[in-house]
Amino acid sequence: MKKSAVLVLATMAVVLVGAVSCVPVSQTVTLKQPFDKAQAERLLRPGNNTIKVNAFMRQAGGGVVTCAGEDIDLVPATKMAEERVTALYGSVNGGYRPVGLGGLKFENEDPDYTNKWKTGICSSDGRAIFSKVADGDFYITTRVVWTVQYPQGGNLSKRISVKGGETLEVVLSN
Question: pTM surpassing 0.85?
Answer without folding.
Answer: no
